[in-house]
Amino acid sequence: MLEVINDFLSGKVLIVLIVGLGTYFTLRSRFVQFRHFGHMFSVFKESIRGQAGQLSSFQALMLSLAGRVGAGNIAGVGLAVTLGGPGAVFWMWVTALVGMSSSFFECTLAQVYKRADGDGLYRGGPSYYIQHGLKLRWMALTFAVLLLVTYGFAFNGLQAFTVTHSLENAFGLPVQYTGIGLAVLLGLVFIGGIKRIASVSDLLVPVKTLAYIAVTCYVIISQIELVPDMLVTIVKSAFGLEPAFAGLLGSAIVMGVKRGVFANEAGLGSAPNVAAVAAVKHPAAQGVVQAFSVFLDTFVICTCTALLILLSGFYTPGFEGDGIVLTQNSLAAVVGEWGRVFISVALSLFVFTCILYNYYLGENALQFLAGRSRAALLTYRGLVLALICWGSMQNLGTVFAFADITMTCLAFVNLLALAMLIKVGLRVMRDYDEQRKAGINQPVFDSAKFADLDLDRDAWPANPAPSEDTIPVAHGLAQSHR
To answer: Where found (predicted)?
Structure first.
């Protein structure tokens, strides 16, 4: 019964919601992800600079990439290609393109309605913009409960299962010992709270991402003459024009969209929880940064995995096996047996940072539900660590199906809220665009212009003082000349 419900919700309803509303947001915003594409790189560079005692936009980006760049980029892409053929990659790209606009608005709104937590940090996310933007407390509580159950508990057990069994296959390590070791390492990070989680992600995410991209690029460059034809095959297969994959047209669309959504999480309502923690001058700047993370996740990392598989010569139509095995064997076919070990190590790093991300999402939901209860927080940490130990030794197929259902419900609640708050998102976007058009390099959010919104004045003061980066370029030159 769970499988039937899951297939309907995540295989049909979720696809229509993600693609349909993503397209709607793209049109309403006048293609914000394309208009700001070049700007994304400059905002990404500026995001590295943070304020003392607060998390920078770059750290928030690394934390969100900790969750986005995970098992879905390895096993998920392999599964999509296995069941949908090369055409599934094209539909992953399409999903990411429209998803970039959804990510822009959900992360911008998370910044708009964030709350200062009293320790110099911020909390925010869909529960906060539902409560303070829509005034629907019951809907906000529903989202928080779904987020806590899905990410805080279910997905952490599944991630633990994935990494411990991958290490067992690669090195023969007993799952019970690797599960305990994983729990100990994670516990040390959990104790430090969001700052330590962000610091660890800040270190591990660039390392794991760049190392993985470097190895996959080596495979791609070593067979660069085959890449143009393979890209043509991907596009033709997406529309059923490649004879060898003509029978997979329906599967290509379904698997491409489904795996694309699960890889980049655009529109699901997870990334806004970490996007809200950053100290930024304007909410839309964080929206731009998070839209860039969707691009990086899908167009760079997922594409690297897909080309690795398709160029290796190992993959053939009708391949039977899971996504991890396909990716491991594909890399080994090109670089030798060390490729299997590399995939296992890369997957371990991916999963470790994913669990940190999942844990924080659950903690954020818990604080929304229970306030700053120390007892609730310690109980939550203990349950998560116990579940990681237990999950590393169990087959969690039923839990996985249940988590898929709750995650689809998460996406439904979040996308409905985004559609209802789209006018606020557009107002904030226009304020950002107008300041940039006036020559301001780093626009500043003045809450006085949005006095009708339920904002936290500690997070967004009225009439903020401009800095050198927020003075219009022409005015700055004139002052310099005088």
So the answer is: Cell inner membrane; Cell membrane
